[in-house]
Amino acid sequence: MAANAALQRESAERQGMAQDMLEVSDREQRRIGQDLHDGLGQLLAGMAFLSQALATKLARHGMREMAEATQLVQLANQAMTWGRELVCGLSPIEVEGEGFLPALQLLATQTEWAY
């Protein structure tokens, strides 16, 4: 009986440790996703806006380089799309785990990336 109880305790302890490891991994993935959004995402958005402004100015003056500036805009937008998809993969929306409000905040962040 004592050996069986010890095995059950050990099994429960291992399951708890495994759950803790999964939670740490999930938190780290979310942190990385948020860091990507807050840092890289904002830089890429700024780059896209500045590139668009440059392309508009170049087009207004009839300069050939406008096509290259337009390519910069397209590349920045592609990078933002890729980053958004990466962040969504790292931080999927989960209503059950943390509750409705954090899930809604994450959805707002993901929508901000999209538009």
TrEMBL record:
Transmembrane ranges?
Answer: none
Chain segments carrying region Disordered: 1-20
Which cellular component terms (GO) are annotated to the entry? membrane
Q: Organism, per UniProt?
A: Tectimicrobiota bacterium
Task: Report the residue ranges that make up the Signal transduction histidine kinase subgroup 3 dimerisation and phosphoacceptor domain in this protein.
Answer: 28-92
InterPro entries hit by this protein: Sig_transdc_His_kin_sub3_dim/P (IPR011712)
Q: Which Pfam families match?
A: HisKA_3
Q: What is this protein called?
A: Signal transduction histidine kinase subgroup 3 dimerisation and phosphoacceptor domain-containing protein
Query: Which GO MF terms does the UniProt record name?
Result: phosphorelay sensor kinase activity; protein dimerization activity
